Task: structure prediction
Amino acid sequence: MFTTRTGRAIQPRSLSRSFERLSASVGMRPIRLHDLRHSVASMLKRSGVAPRDAMEILGHSRISVTMEIYTHSDEATQREGLGRLGGTLFGEGDGDPDED
Result:
């Protein structure tokens, strides 16, 4: 929850407008404030944070919400996973694909 300087709750639309102004002032491409939750979920995953901990951080009631809706995969983590699999299958070091 976000509050004003006097401690009153900020209305969701007012918070969104403030975020839009702030992001525009720093040259950020337009995104919804809510999109940051998806980014945080994906960064937690990439950082190796356990799914249950990510669920708690994001305030979700079920891990499935965190993992199926908020957490997104990317090419780098997919390559890393495939590299580890290759290392396991073919006994090549730790499976780091950039280690050649």
